[in-house]
């Protein structure tokens, strides 16, 4: 498989998007859990849900953007 293939670009886009989305989701989830005073162990669950949801959505969009951009040649 070529190093600059379309699949490699899309995979890299999904991975980078997931990492950035996960980091932002963890920060935002922690902020909201503290702000809304989520009780006890539910904080961990809430932060995890926010982190995974944000990572999935941002990874999906960055992967789709990479796929659209993959067909263009300059």
From TrEMBL:
It is found in: Membrane. It comes from the Eukaryota. Keywords: Membrane, Transmembrane, Transmembrane helix. InterPro entries: Romo1/Mgr2. The keyword Transmembrane helix applies. One of its GO terms (cellular component) is TIM23 mitochondrial import inner membrane translocase complex. The chain crosses the membrane at residues 12-34, 46-68. SMART domains: Romo1. The keyword Transmembrane applies. One of its GO terms (biological process) is protein import into mitochondrial matrix. Belongs to the MGR2 family. This is Reactive oxygen species modulator 1. It comes from Tetracentron sinense.
């Amino acid at each position: 498989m070529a190093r600059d293939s379309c699949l490699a670009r899309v995979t890299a886009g999904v991975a980078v998007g997931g990492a950035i989305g996960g980091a932002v989701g963890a920060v935002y989830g922690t902020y909201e859990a503290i702000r809304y005073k989520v009780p006890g162990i539910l904080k961990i669950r809430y932060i995890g849900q926010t982190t995974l949801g944000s990572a999935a959505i941002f990874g999906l969009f960055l992967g789709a953007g990479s796929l659209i951009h993959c067909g263009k040649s300059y």
